Each structure stands twice: as C-alpha cells, then as structure tokens.
Amino acid sequence: MNQPAVTQYPVTDRVREALAVTLRGVEELIPAEEWIQKLARAEATKTPLRIKFGLDPTAPDIHLGHTVVFNKMRQLQDLGHTVIPLIGDFTTTIGDPSGRNSTRPPLTREQIEANAKTYFDQLRVVLDVSKAEVRYNSEWSDPLGARGMIQLAAKYTVARMMERNDFHERFHAGTSISVHEFLYPLMQGYDSVALKSDLELGGTDQKFNLLMGRHLQQEYGQEPQCILTMPLLEGLDGVEKMSKSKNNYIGITEDANTMFAKVLSISDELMWRWYTLVSFRGEAEIATLKKEIEGGRNPKDAKVMLAKEITSRFHSAQAADAAEQDFINRSKGGVPDEIPDVALSGAPLGIGALLKQAGLAPSGSEANRLIDGGGVRVDSAVVSDKGLKLPAGTYVVQVGKRKFARVTLS
C-alpha cells in the first residue's frame, strides 16, 4: 500500500527568521528538520502553531532563572503562534521525580492553588496572557479514570522508563522508586496528546518527559511535537545555576532597588549570557552593543541598560530610573531619598542593641560581626568601637550597602 505523499512547504526568509528566533539561546531543538517544516507550514497556511510549556506549581517563589523559558514563549508568541501555559494541577499531586534521588512528596490542593496563582500572576509580566491559551491538566486527567490510566500505561515499557537517568541511578543504588513516579512522565506526555501541541518547551532536566509527549502523540496517531530545551541560567556568582538555596538569585518580586543593584553586581562576561537568555533586545542590537564595548565603551553602560530593562519589566520604567539614581547615591556614599524611620528609647543605647532593635541586624553577635567588618556607619562615619553608646538624638544608620534607617533615640 502506497504511503500518501508528505507536503513539503517552502522555507522562506520569514521561516528562516522564525527559526533564528527559535534557536536564540536554546540548548537543543529536536528534531530541527521537523520544526523547520512546521514553521514553513504555518507560514504557508497562516495557521499558528501550538506551543506548550508545563508549569508544576511546586513552589510559590519565582526567580529570574525561571523566566528564561517564559521569555522564549514570548518570542514565539510575538511570531504569531499560540502559546499554552499549562498549569499542572493534576501532575503536581503525583510529584515530579526529575533530578531527584528520592520520592518527591505531592502537594495538597490548597498548596497547588496558591502556588499556581503566584505563577500565573508572574506569567502576565512576560506573556500577553490575553492571547495565550492557559490550561489546567486536571481538565483531561481527572476524567481519564482508572481504566484510562491503565490503557495509557500500556503504551510505554518499564525497560524504556528505566532508561531515565534518575530512575536508573536510584535502582542501581538500591533506593526505592514508587510505582506512582512512573505515572508522572506518562501524564505529562498525555498532556501533549490532549493539547495537540506542535512544540513543547522545558529545561534540560525535563528532556525525558518532553520526549514522552512526542512518543505518546505517535501512539495516538498524532503528528509528534518537537522539543525545545532551554539552559539553566547561571546565578549572580556566574558559576552555579540560579537558586534560592545558593543565595545567588534575583527574585522577581524583590524591590526595584535591590533588583537593579543585583544585576549590576554580575561579571562583565556573565552579562552577555544574561542578555541572550533574559533580555528582549534583538540579537543584532546586542551584537552592536558588544562590539561597542570591545571598541572601548565602558561595560558598565551595557550592564546598566540590562539592569534597567529587567527592573522595568517587573516594576516600571520610573522605578528603574529611581533605582539607578539610588545606586548612584549609594556608590557615592549618599543616603537614599526614602529610608525607614525608627523610634527607640533607652538613651544612651549601645550600638549593638540599637542595630538589633532597629531591625538592621538579627542579633547582637551579628551586629558585632558587622562592626568588625567595617560595615556599620552612623551619619556616614564608620563605626569601629563595639562599645559605642549613642545619646538621645536622630541618626542615619547604615549597614552594608543597602540597609538604612533614620533612628530617633530618646
């Protein structure tokens, strides 16, 4: 029996431009040839492609590293395609074993709903949510039932499942693997079937799960999705991936002044990596800027541009301008325009007790450590005497580069 001819669509300049946007900063595109044809078909038929990204709301806090995939979705959305942020409210009740050496505890429904709201609120900052197709995988996963789950499980073998690195390593280490953990990649793959996705995005640690969607789509007679993996963003130290546990992160709900200052603290080398993965500026504009820096322009100019772009995205252009001025004031030893006012009693009061009571140090011992390190100033003068006692009056007290308080002591 003859197979029907597969239509080959022309690869136009617009398709090549779309491919360049797709490939910006990516780790891997699987398979590239199929994606090019999907882009060509979309261009020829004026039919947008369906771009899926799964969000398992396992934690309420989002940092800049999490937005790398969001940015890629926005780039593809700007090309005219349909982006589908998928909230994994069903799969989160199972618990994703990716990269884990032990069973991950599932969350309660209340935790999932609270975390999902946080993720969704932050998606609005990057994506045009009004044009996105926001979905929840409980829509099709709950109705699947026991019979449907067993039928789905029959479409993948245990041997293939054990090829996954974390399962393979845990098995040979004698660490327990619960049967329900096999269901997670199956259910994530089934999401692609339910959504008829053309492309699924994810981090490099999700590659197995993303390929599962491609496999299951073929099992269900669908055209398989392509896979796009994004790298993990290095944190402020430029070495480890951005992580709250490593304290090298920028939280996207941090105040504008802190966010701006943290971006300026990264190395000149790391700055260009962040421009590729986090900035919305075009690659041609970034290349021109890089050439100017190589030609002698101060690298700080480019870093300030990046800091203002990121701060504006999560706050506002006005907040970014104010943060820049605040940074200039601090770098000159100046005092920010707005600092908290604190009223204390007990004059004369020891400097250690004052720092603790004003909320500038968590304890007296930490206050002493800060003084020893030269990190405490009173009215711009460095404090070196841990036995200093301040009489009644008003003082501007500074700890480190960013903590200030106007203390009125009586």
Automatic annotation (TrEMBL):
Catalysed reaction, written as an equation: tRNA(Tyr) + L-tyrosine + ATP = L-tyrosyl-tRNA(Tyr) + AMP + diphosphate + H(+)
UniProt GO MF annotations: ATP binding; RNA binding; tyrosine-tRNA ligase activity
Subcellular location: Cytoplasm
Motif ('HIGH' region): 57-66
Domain of life: Bacteria
CC per GO annotation: cytosol
Similarity comment: Belongs to the class-I aminoacyl-tRNA synthetase family. TyrS type 2 subfamily.
This protein's name: Tyrosine--tRNA ligase
